[in-house]
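From the methods appendix. Each design record in this collection lists the tokenized structure first, followed by the designed amino acid sequence. Records were kept in a plain field format so they could be parsed without special tools. The example shown here is representative of the layout used throughout.

RECORD:
FOLD TOKENS (125 positions):
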């Protein structure tokens, strides 16, 4: 685990107390069942280029608040956000909830949890 700053971890823990998290297994089941959901990778551009969870789109944490309404105008749409370790995506899920999105989940442990569960990443085309 990375050595995160204490105030960052405090923010993440506060956000996690207000959001819904799902496991990699739950996400994989939803993907395999072709459930209606928007899967968003909120990592930085250089992270996206190393591989992403299948079916994901890329909206980095730095721009998601600006662009989400254009990409997903329906505030009731199911959304799952993920990052590398489950920290930044918790913050994003909290912000999206504050913006009025009602069905936002954060992937517990992010893409690392996905890989640890035995699932593969897809390289961008």
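DESIGN:
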């Amino acid at each position: 685990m990375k050595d995160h700053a204490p105030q960052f971890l405090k923010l993440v823990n506060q956000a996690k107390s207000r959001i819904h998290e799902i496991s990699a297994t739950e996400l994989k089941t939803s993907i395999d069942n072709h459930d209606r959901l928007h899967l968003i990778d909120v990592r930085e551009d250089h992270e996206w280029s190393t591989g992403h969870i299948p079916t994901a789109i890329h909206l980095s944490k730095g721009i998601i608040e600006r662009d989400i309404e254009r990409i997903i105008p329906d505030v009731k749409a199911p959304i799952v956000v993920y990052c590398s370790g489950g920290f930044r995506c918790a913050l994003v899920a909290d912000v999206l909830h504050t913006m009025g999105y009602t069905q936002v989940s954060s992937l517990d442990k992010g893409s690392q949890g996905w890989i640890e569960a035995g699932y593969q990443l897809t390289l961008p085309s």
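APPENDIX NOTE: The mean pLDDT is 96.
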